[in-house]
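Hi,

Apologies if this is the wrong queue. I'm a grad student, and the batch job for Outer membrane efflux protein from Granulicella tundricola produced an output file that my downstream script rejects. I'm not sure whether the problem is my script or the file. Here is the sequence I used:
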Amino acid sequence: MLGSMAQHDPHDSSLLRGACAVAARGAAAGLALPFLLLTLSTPALSAQAPCAGTAPSPAAAADCTARNTPVATVAPLDPNHTYSLTELIDLAEHNNPRTRIAWEQAKQRANALGVEKSAYFPLLVFQAIGGDQRTISPFPKSLEPQGFNMVEIPIIQPGLNLQYLLFDFGTRSARVDAALADKIVGGANFVQANQEVAFRVATAYYRLLTAQERLQATRETLKTGQTTQDAAEAQLANGRSTIPDVLNAKAETSQDVFDMESADGDEKIARVELVEQVGAEPTPNINIDAMSKAPLPETLTVSIEELIERAVAGRPDLAAQAAEIRAAEDRIKVAKGAYKPRITLTASGAQTSIWPTADYGALGRASEPTWSAILGVEWRVFDGGARRNLLESAQSQKRQAQDEYTERHDRATREVWTAYIAFRTALKKQQAAVALMEAANESYGASLEAYKYGVKNLIDVVTAERQLAQARLSGVSARSQLFLEAVDLEFVTGNLLRSLPPATKLEPKDGAAK
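Support response: The file is valid. Your script probably expects a header line. Output copied below for reference.
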């Protein structure tokens, strides 16, 4: 579904379709995480993105990025269009520079693999020389009256030079394996970059959604405050209230206006941040779908143990680090191979044409094939410790890569636990927020009604009004936080934009479970 626009060689189109078909099927199967909002249309978007972040493996992503070239574009945002989260993520994948940077880095690693593979082929160089040479040689005067002989030799010699490494005890193979592991690293990093971009867009999207709902909550609170002020003024007119009560109600209304203006500014800033994450020039001119009726994540579908296993198996950063260990092992083989001999073949063939002239006597002309062939053994006997230091450095890099994998594994486990706990907490907070909103709404209604009958004073009404305002904001925060934690749970387990079933289940809608 997602990915930057690309150019590719038409001769590679059939290979490209084969390499990326699995990625498209993976996108269609699982990209549409239910909490990413019921509007995802993966098949249509997949056709636009041959190197999507939905590639089922780093190897598939590496192959696809190697065959294609990303094209820098600017997100064509339409201020009159209402964007879904799916559309925004797709725009980001096409336009966010981070995806193109990761793409180019993956492509460079794939090219490095091609360079290492070329060592298995002979090096053939065409060379053509042309020149003229004059020499003077002493000569007996009995044979040469001048006592010397001067010869001029023009020459033309086109030819081919061949250099071929026949055997090197596995050094080339180790270099190729290391480059292949580096290519996998590039593919994993590309998938990771796509996931991070999608996560950032989703986060910015929900922040904007939260800001919009908070703005709406402050507007409702302002209406509530105006209702309280009207009641206080009506009671004053009936002689059952005091001027301080009216002034207190007006102060609360003014505070509500202040809160509404502040929320309005935050909402516009959230628009700018979302546009920036998409990859367009920052501007507040963007509209998103409200999603006010979208069902909430209701419960987890897998255990914490399964979530950790999913993260270890699916996170691209762990896959990249595992490939780094493999590359480090191959570099050790390369360093050890430097202790062994190399068998090489060097050959040349040319057509040599000369037509010499001498100041005394006649010389013959020639245009004949000339050649040479040398089979050599090269064995470095002493190098001042260079090979030893290279080997120790390679071994150190392997230990470092292993320690980094352990560190990343532990961090991934911690992040999964954190996301798991945060989601469960957000779920309980959402349930509490619903109960709080119901209680606060009933409390305010009862307090206002009692105040109108003179049973309660204005302080009780204002207190209930503040509780209702806080309940509205708490409900907005809890709802968006639940969505965010569900997205984060998919992100830390490596399943964002991937094909595995989501870790959460939506609440029933219209009598049917999702």
